[in-house]
Amino acid sequence: MANVSASPYQLIEDCEATHKTLYKFYAAVMIVIFILALPLNASVLHLFIFKLKFWNSNTNVFLFNLTLADVLVLFCLPVQAHSFIEGERRSSNDAICKAMLFMLFLHRGASIAFLTVISIDRYFNVVHLGQKRLLRVLKNSPQVSILIWLLLLPLTIPTMLKNFACCNSDKDTKDDALVKDVVDSLREAVIFTQIVIPFVILVYCTVHIVNRLRKKTVGDKTKLRRAVFAVTSCMVVFSLCFLPCTIARMVLLIVRAQLPDKELPQDRASVTFDGLMVLSYMDCLLDPLVYCFCSTTFKEHYFSSYFPFLLKGAKQLERSSIETVQPTRNTVD
């Protein structure tokens, strides 16, 4: 039960799940995602390491790191699902709660960062081929990937500080209000900056690559079409998985500021935010689509390794269509 004299943060950061049945549904969704995504990402990792040798291709290095980001969240899903089933929004154990938040937001930041880098790489390869300096930087994909991970670590630490997402919410802390406000503001700034800036970059890259495809009247358009599919797939994953939960977080903060003493609106906003966070974990299932659109080599190796019957069916269909067309040509001749 929330204290009457508690701060507005206490109302929305309460660890108890008020809608038990709904949170059990959230848990079921996470379990389904885990069951489907675990073998999918395991097969992708196996392919990158043993078949493609990802370190030999700049694009594959970025895609491999995106896969690592997805693996991070997979280990969190069973723990988070267990908390929901127990009627808690987060684990009651403070250390587990903060560790889960760190892993979840590190996954989110890494996924967004590598989706953005992949789009930037495609943009400069088809729109600004003359920018050799920038292209040379992107070619150093291992160094770029390491730099991204190193930058994400300090940016993710604010999610573990003070009272956030009900971690440490049951303890009566007497910290300086100014320090608390600074930490809260820093955390929210990081959360929204990680979304807004990459979203603008993704939109910019997508629009310019599509325009380049439209303006190209002669020559091979295959490379441009692949680039369009690649950045579009990144945009789709970003828009479905990360934008909704960010908007929900914004609504939650507005409700907290406008209605600090109203528990019902804050409770509804919190439940919606948690549900859309569950939706964000779907990127573990959608990212392989990005791999297929970004790398034809990955797509060919993946289907030939794990779904060879699909390729056999496609080849038989192609062969039959050729045989059907051939007699017609002979008759005409």
Automatic annotation (TrEMBL):
Q: What is the lineage of its organism?
A: Eukaryota, Metazoa, Chordata, Craniata, Vertebrata
Q: Name one Pfam family in it.
A: 7tm_1
One MF term in the entry's GO annotations: G protein-coupled receptor activity
Supply the PROSITE patterns for this chain.
Answer: G_PROTEIN_RECEP_F1_1, G_PROTEIN_RECEP_F1_2
Where does the protein end up?
Membrane
Q: What is this protein called?
A: 12-(S)-hydroxy-5,8,10,14-eicosatetraenoic acid receptor
Q: Where does this chain mainly localize?
A: membrane
Source taxon at top rank:
Eukaryota
Membrane topology reported for the UniProt record: Multi-pass membrane protein
Which residues belong to any copy of the G-protein coupled receptors family 1 profile domain? 40-291
Gene label: gpr31
- Keywords from the UniProt entry: G-protein coupled receptor, Membrane, Receptor, Transducer, Transmembrane, Transmembrane helix
**Classification via Gene3D superfamilies:** Rhodopsin 7-helix transmembrane proteins (1.20.1070.10)
UniProt KW rRNA-binding keyword: no
